[in-house]
Amino acid sequence: MEEMMEEYVTFHVTAKDGSDVEMAVVDEFDFEEKHYVVGAVVKDDTIDDEGRYIYECIMDGDDFTVQQIKKEFDYRRIANAYMAMDGEE
After folding, report:
1. What's the superkingdom here (predicted)?
2. Are the CB atoms for 24 and 46 separated by under 8 Å?
3. How far is CA 79 from CA 35, 36, 39, 45, 88, in A?
4. Between the CA of residue 6 and those of 55, 72, 73, 77, what are the distances in Å?
């Protein structure tokens, strides 16, 4: 798995059912003075093309942790800002 995923930074989140899910950072951006990462699920050594998920990213030197955006209103606002930025490239 590590050989195929080498080019991506990965992190783990807990799914609603309590299972551990490995995510790959496929993009990152800043919005309203906060940093966010866009993650995609890692399945069988590849990145799942179905869906992207945005998490707030807290940097600690070279390490980082992610935090779920809990309020639906905030998540939609951040996702819309990301999609607008993505469309400009």
Report:
1. Bacteria
2. no
3. 13, 10, 12, 26, 14
4. 21, 33, 34, 32
Instruction: Tell me the whole-structure pTM to 2 decimals.
Output: 0.83
Look up tokens 């992610």; give the residue: 66
Under DSSP, the state recorded for 18 is S
Listed in sequence order, the residues at least 6 apart from 32 whose beta carbon sits closer than 8 Å to its beta carbon are: none
Residue 9, SS3 per DSSP: coil
- Closest by CA position to 53, among listed 81, 75, 31, 30: 75
Q: Which tokens hold the place of 86?
A: 């993505």
